[in-house]
Amino acid sequence: MIGMMAVLATINDPGLTIDEPINVGHGKRMVWMLSHTNLTTPIASVADRIEGVWGHAHEHPPLTRFSIGVAHHFLDSDPDDPNSFVPMLGRPASAVAYGIILFLVTIWAWSLGERMAGPLNGPVAGVSAGLLTLALPRLFGHAHFASPEVISAAAILAALMAGGRALDRISTSGSLGKIVSFLWAGLWVGIALLTKLTAVLVPIALTIAFLVRYRFRGLVTLIVIGLVSLAVFIAGWPWLWPISMHFDNNAALGDGWTGTVLRLIDFFKTGVERATIYVGYFGKQFPNESSGVPWHYVWVFFFVTVPVGVHAAAICGIWPLWRMGRDIPSARLLLLQIAIILGFFMLPVGKYDGERLFLMIFPMWTIVAGCGIAWVVDVMSRYVPLTFAVVTATLFIAVQFVGVIGMHPYQLSYYNGAIGGLPGAERLGLEATYWGDTVNDEILDQLAEKANRGDEAVLIPSLYRGHAAYMTNRKLMEKDIVIDSLSEGAVDRDQWAIVFNRSGYLGDPLPRRVMKEGELVAEISRQGVWLTRLYRLPVSRHGGASDSTKNLEH
C-alpha cells in the first residue's frame, strides 16, 4: 500500500512516454466497446466492434490495455467518445499493479523464508523482499506509466505463484486440494497470457518443473492447467472468438474456429514482425531485429539496472532456495523462471528499450534477495545478537533506496554503481534514456517561458506521431505552443526543438543537424549527464548562439 501511494503521489512527475497514447487510446476503445455492447446487440455488430478495436492493434492481448482503459474511465470527462482521451489519466492502472506486486513479493518470500531454519526468517525474508522491490528504481519508474509492463509483471508473478502452489501440492494434498490448485493455476496462467506475449515463458517453466519432478503425473497436471489457461485466454480476448469477421477481404480474420486459429497465428507473428527500433548499445546503433542487438544485451541491462546490493542479496539467496527445492519444488521453480527469462532473450529475438521487455524478472529476483537477507541474518545471529543482525540488514536495505530517491522522477535513467552510475553508462555508450519520460514539465515549462505565443517545437527523436501530439501542459496551452513530430519540414519551420538523449537515434542526420545548428537554451541532467535539452531553431534567425549557451554536438 505504501509503495502504491508513493507512485500515485508522484504519478505525473515523469513525462509522457512514447507508447502511452497508443495504450490509453486502445484501452478506451475497449471500455467503450464493452459499455456499448449488450445481449441484444446483433452478432454482426459485435463482430464490427471487435474488429474495430483489435483489427489493427492485436500486438498485445487485451488485459493490460483494458486495465489502463478502466483507470482512464474513472477520470474521463468524455466517456462516450471512443476517440477522445488524455494519456496521463490511464496511469493509475500501473500504480495499482505495482501495489499488487509488492504484496505478492512479500507473501511469497515470507512463505519461503518460513521453510528456512531460524525464528525470524519468514518475516525477515518477506519484509526484506518487499522493501528491496520498492528500492528498484526502474520498476518504481515504470509503475508511473500507462503501459503494459508492470500490469503484466503482476499477472505473471501471480501465475508463477499459483503454478508453484500446484507444484508443491501435487504430492502432499488430498484429491480436492490438488484439483483446486490445478484449476487455480490454470486460471492465473490464462490471465497472465491475456497481458503480454512474454507470459508464454510461464507455462514453459511450469512444463519443465512438472515433468522433471513428477514425470507422468506431472503431464496429467499440465494438461489440466493448459486446458484451463487456454479457455481463459480465448474467453478473455474477443479477437479470438469464433465469430465470422471478414473486413476488407482480409482472409486472416476467417470464420468460426478456423478464424480463431488464424487470428491466433497472426497474433504470434507480432512477436517477430514489428516496426524497426534502433538501439544505442556500447556506442553503436543496432536495429531491434533478430540479427541486430547482441545476445548479451539483456544480461548487461539486468546487471546494470538493479542496485548492486540487491544483486548481492539475491546471490546469497540462490543456494538456500535451491536446497529448499528438494522439499519445496516452487523454490526451484522461481529460480528456473528467472533463468528461462534471461535465456530466452539470448535467442535471436527483438531486443530494445533496456529492461522494459523483461521487467517481470525484477520482482522474482527480489524474492530471491529477500531470502538471501534472511539467510544472512540467520548466519549472523549465530555470532552476534539477533537485534544487531536485524539492524544491520535494515541499514543495508535502506542504502538501496539511494537510486529511487536520487534519480526521481527519471528512474528509467538509473544505472548502478558497478558501472559508475549514469556517467559510467554514458561513457560505455549505453542509452541515458529511451522512452521520452524525461520530457516532463521541467523542460516544457522552460519552453513555455522562453517561446512566443503560437511558436512550434519539434520533438527529437519521434518514434510515434501521437507522442508529440499529446505532449503538452497548461502553460503551453495558454500560449498556444504546439509540439510536432520530427520531420525535415518541422526542423526548417519550427522555432524550437526538444531533444531527449536516446543515443540510438541521435546519430541520424536531422538530430545531428539540430544539435549542431541550434542554440542550446535549457538542459535537464542527472549526475552530470544530460537527459533532455531545449534548442532554439535555427541559429541564423537569432544571431547565433552565445558563448554561455554553446551547443554540444553529439
Characterize the largest beta sheet: strand count, sense, and whether it forms a barrel. Answer: 5 strands, mixed
User: Into which percent range does the helicity of residues fall?
Assistant: 55-70%
- The computed structural class is alpha/beta
Low-confidence stretches: 541-554
Please indicate the percent range of residues in DSSP E strands (runs of 2 or more): 5-15%
Shape: globular
Overall mean confidence score, pLDDT: 88
Distance between the termini: 43 Å
Order of adjacent strands in the largest pleated sheet: 4-3-5-7-6
Estimated radius of gyration: 25 Å
Total E-strand runs: 7
Determine the number of helices (DSSP H or I, runs of at least 4 residues): 25
Can you tell me about this structure?
- By secondary structure, this protein is an alpha/beta fold.
- Among the domains are: 89 residues, no CATH class; 109 residues, no CATH class.
- 56% of the residues lie in helices and 7% in strands.
- It is built from 25 helices and seven strands.
- The strands form two sheets. It has a five-stranded mixed sheet with strand order 4-3-5-7-6, with helices on both faces. A two-stranded antiparallel ribbon has the order 1-2.
- A hairpin with a 2-residue loop joins strand 6 and strand 7.
- Helix 9 packs across helix 11 and helix 10 runs antiparallel to helix 11.
- The longest helix has 23 residues.
- The protein starts with a helix and ends in an 18-residue tail after the last strand.
- The C terminus is likely disordered.
